[in-house]
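Thread amino acids onto this structure.
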């Protein structure tokens, strides 16, 4: 029995006002005319299906029920596709105690009306995963992204058009308790940049004091979501990423696994691949003095400024040049008295340095030094002191990169 026939039976049974009413069900339905599964929103799945209702001239009542599935009944919509000027939805009523509704439809003639029924259905979700394989010199990656569709809704979809908010649609059926994986993004030559990142708020300032700790500088691959990189057509959803590198002998090396965040067009994706001791940062606070003291009537200091100097020595033990991204933090109101390296502001309290390092030589590592001399303004005396060094890191697995 096809979907059109079932819809017609449901309608005629209501018109006949029989005691046992047939229903257009969402469970174990025969073939639909067309179905779209929309995954634009990660928190809800929109189902759009087309059916044919056999309407008679005058007032028609169509009974629509669902069983064994979770539908947001407030989201159910009915749209006339072929005779919208002659077929009008007058009202919707909900039988008490039932997972059902009744549409009251006025028809200007006898029509086999194609309609679109849409609703939010629970327990269909999707995951996005990435696989990136870097070439041996780590300048390009073969980037693939997969959609993993999981259906635990209680409903079978023999044929459906699956849509994300970007990329190509999939003509794909999926049954209840079924999981399917589909490739939707493939670019074999995406430029990649290898970056080392030191964040003064989270990284140890003196690694020599941590000889018994497996501590290094975090290393990532940086991919720009832009036309120049062969991407840039749409935002990239966040998801689990597995990163590999060609070993030069026809195989690959597993570098690591990371959870990528949503990357808008023009922004950058960072994929963490491990820690490295090839670059060493040793940072010190050389001065931290209170100046411009302001007192209340009782002679107690209530506000003051600070005079602070931080130095950092960056050493590259690699045989090749590298770029270290250094993140520094100055809370509150502040002004820079002197800084020997250029920086950009990520926000009001965060400074970003891109420090280019030469390769090591026979004489030893290539090195650069950072010196920041700044003042913090209007610091309250009852404010908790700012930590001079981050907490000691926990012991972890060291992966040299």
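Threaded sequence (401 positions):
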């Amino acid at each position: 029995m096809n979907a059109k026939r079932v819809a017609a039976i449901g309608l005629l049974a209501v018109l006949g006002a029989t005691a046992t009413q047939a229903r257009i069900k969402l469970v174990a339905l025969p073939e639909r005319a067309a179905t779209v599964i929309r995954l634009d929103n990660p928190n809800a799945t929109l189902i759009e299906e087309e059916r044919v209702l056999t309407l008679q001239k005058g007032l028609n009542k169509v009974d629509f029920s669902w069983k064994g599935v979770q539908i947001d009944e407030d989201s159910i919509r009915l749209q006339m596709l072929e005779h919208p000027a002659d077929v009008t939805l007058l009202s919707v009523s909900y039988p008490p105690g039932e997972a059902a509704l009744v549409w009251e439809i006025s028809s200007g003639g006898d029509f086999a009306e194609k309609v679109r029924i849409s609703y939010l259905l629970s327990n269909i979700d999707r995951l996005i995963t990435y696989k990136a394989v870097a070439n041996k010199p780590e300048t390009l990656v073969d980037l693939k992204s997969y959609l993993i569709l999981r259906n635990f809704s209680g409903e079978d979809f023999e044929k459906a058009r699956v849509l994300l908010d970007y990329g190509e649609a999939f003509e794909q059926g999926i049954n209840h308790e079924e999981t399917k994986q589909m490739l939707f993004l493939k670019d074999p030559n995406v430029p990649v940049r290898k970056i080392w990142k030191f964040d003064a708020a989270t990284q140890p300032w003196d690694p020599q004091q941590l000889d018994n700790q497996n501590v290094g500088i975090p290393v990532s691959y940086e991919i720009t979501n832009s036309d120049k990189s062969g991407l840039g057509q749409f935002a990239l959803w966040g998801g689990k990423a597995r990163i590999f590198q060609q070993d030069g002998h026809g195989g690959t090396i597993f570098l690591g696994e990371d959870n990528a965040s949503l990357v808008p067009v023009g922004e950058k994706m960072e994929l963490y691949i491990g820690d490295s001791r090839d670059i060493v940062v040793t940072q010190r606070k050389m001065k931290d003095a209170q100046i411009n003291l302001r007192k209340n009537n009782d002679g107690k200091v209530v506000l003051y400024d600070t005079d602070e100097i931080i130095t950092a020595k960056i050493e590259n033990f690699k045989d090749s040049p590298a770029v270290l991204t250094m993140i520094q933090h100055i809370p509150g109101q502040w002004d820079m008295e002197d800084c020997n390296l250029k920086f950009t502001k990520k926000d009001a309290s965060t400074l970003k340095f891109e420090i280019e390092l030469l390769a090591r030589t026979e004489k030893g590592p290539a090195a650069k030094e950072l010196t920041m001399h700044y003042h913090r303004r209007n610091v309250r005396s009852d404010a908790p002191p700012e930590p001079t060094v981050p907490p000691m890191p926990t012991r972890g697995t060291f992966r040299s990169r």
